Amino acid sequence: MAALDPSRTTDWWRDAVIYQVYPRSFADGDGDGTGDLAGVRARLPHLAELGVDAVWFTPWYASPMVDGGYDVADYRAIDPAFGTLDEAEKLIAEAADLGLRVIVDIVPNHVSDQHAWFRAALAAGPGSPERARFHFRPGRGEHGELPPNDWPSQFSGDTWTRVPDGEWYLHLFTPEQPDLNWSHPDVRREHEDVLRFWFERGVAGVRIDSAALLTKDPGLRDFVEGVDPHPYIDQDEIHDVYRSWRAIADAYGGVFVGEVWLPDAERFARYLRPDELHTAFNFNFLACPWEPARLRATIDDTLAEHAPVHAPATWVLCNHDVTRTATRYGRTDTAFDFATKAFGTPTDLELGTRRARAAALLTLALPGSVYLYQGEELGLPEADIPRDRIQDPMHFRSGGTDPGRDGCRVPLPWEADSPSYGFGAGTEPWLPQPADWARYAVDRQTDDPDSMLTLYRTALGLRRTVPGFGDGPLTWLPAADGVLALARAHGLICVVNLSTAPVELPAHGELLLSSGPLDAGGTLPPDTAAWLRA
Q1: Which of 25, 142, 220, 500 pairs as cysteine with 411 (C-beta 3.0–4.6 A)?
Q2: pLDDT in tens, 102-122
Q3: Annotated active-site residue in 49, 94, 158, 209
Q4: 74 is an active site residue
Q5: Is 100 exposed, middle or buried (0-12, 13-18, 19+ CB in 10 A)?
Q6: Is 259 one of the catalytic residues?
Q7: Strand pairing of 160-162 and 168-170?
Q8: Which residue out of 53, 113, 259, 377 is catalytically annotated?
């Protein structure tokens, strides 16, 4: 493995493949049942051999872990369950030695209720400077017994919690995640210092959680469905924040990727102007069903959204919040929507895995960068977590109707015949692993030419070495009903058969890779993709 390739240091993010690590579930180095930085450091060669360019870590900071680390108590300290700041610095350096950049996650909309600022705000009382960093308000009603407004939660449940002195504080997520007041200069200053802190430790970029939620309507007016502007999503003032951040990132050569959920293409593109964020996640593609017309329209819309600001698109099939690809694609409804998640949804895992393999080749053939969630390279399905082991607050705040997100966060299987499949020695993992996961273990897939891991390693190797992949133009080719065929530069062609019958491949000089075997006559079977060179 080589250190960072100098030829890929300029605008590397425009066509990078970035692997997402959920540290709690990646690898357990100290045997306490929770993944940690020691475990990640030991498994870095897996990521280098996989062929990715960078690694994005979901929050590893000091946290009570009410929301999986997205309730940050201290950005300058690593949570003891994961390790130490010294270990994080060593991890960043060791990753660079293997040619891997590191991206960290920040959560600027809110902090933990255990953060020093919030503890000080509770102690200081109404009208204090400490409370001005948050959204504390008196309640409505004769005795202040009603919340200050009617804003809906990003999770289920209420968005305001009353404290003993009678005031209420805003939390768009859980009560343990109080929202910050982004009109306060201390909040701006602190986050700019946090960015510098991590850039100075060698990180290449920062992923911004809930990036469109930071600034709020000054009067905290009530939410009215369909009335713009929205009181807490995509406020115009938010762009001043990101312009100041971009200046900091540019000084360090760093990059940003925003978690921006917006239906309006023009307003989405504003976040990607040259003086704001470099990239933003493409959730429309992630949520799109396995249907040719819908997929093509989503791809076209995504590229059109990014074109006016000359930003690269990003593509992702799964992350730590959504149903695993192999499971979702085997269901009757292959789209993803938080509102439709339910216990006991049936799936055809063989069909879903076949489609997930094809989707991998489609995704990696598209222009721009790709995000790959841990375990997708193993073809992991969504795990059914026993109700008494569920930890996700989305489940509890729904009254137990939402299965939550733990099913895609189960610790990875590394060694088929080891305790906890090699995740860690000793304590049972923090989430239970399914009894049949030995077949998904890295060591069992490594030498299997037909495994999902081999498919990803081969595809990523070709993507890095064959001209035509990554950033650049895309042209749709004529194709039969139910088939997507696209051309990239240098004669590269990707064909995906989403129909129910085999199809002829277009004229070509070489078959580079297919997601499954071709039929005897050389036709492409249903739910199969192929990379060709003219």
Answers
A1: 25
A2: 999 999 999 999 999 999 999
A3: 209
A4: no
A5: buried
A6: yes
A7: antiparallel
A8: 259
